[in-house]
Amino acid sequence: HVQLVESGGGVVQAGDSLQLSCAASGYTYSGRAFSGYAMGWFRQAPGKEREFVAGIGSGTEYADSVEGRFTISRDKSQSTLSLQMNSLKPDDTAVYYCAARNWYYTSKNRDEYDYWGQGTEVTVSS
Known about the structure:
Layout: E1 3-7, E2 10-13, E3 18-25, E4 38-44, E5 51-56, E6 60-62, E7 70-75, E8 80-85, E9 94-101, E10 115-116, E11 120-125
Parallel strand pairs: 2-11
Antiparallel strand pairs: 1-3, 3-8, 4-5, 4-9, 5-6, 7-8, 9-10, 9-11
């Protein structure tokens, strides 16, 4: 059973940068290497649905709202997923979730992810 733990959230000002991390464990029991899972970052702002932010699998993809500002990456040796967020805006305020999918390709559909972390909160003040 894959377990995901996010960290790195906090309170920052508009224009600042922040890096989120997600530590993955338990995937070896499924027989699939960490690199065999597509990973994604999603976020949920108060009163809104959880939305796709960025994904990494055979390639990377981003939501239009973060393209050019956010960068997703993975360290296979450390089994960690990262999200570098630059030029943060108040609209980026949300709880950010790490997710893993039992497939090599990413998806923007949250229903296609099999494992989720508990989330880390990001607040961007103006």
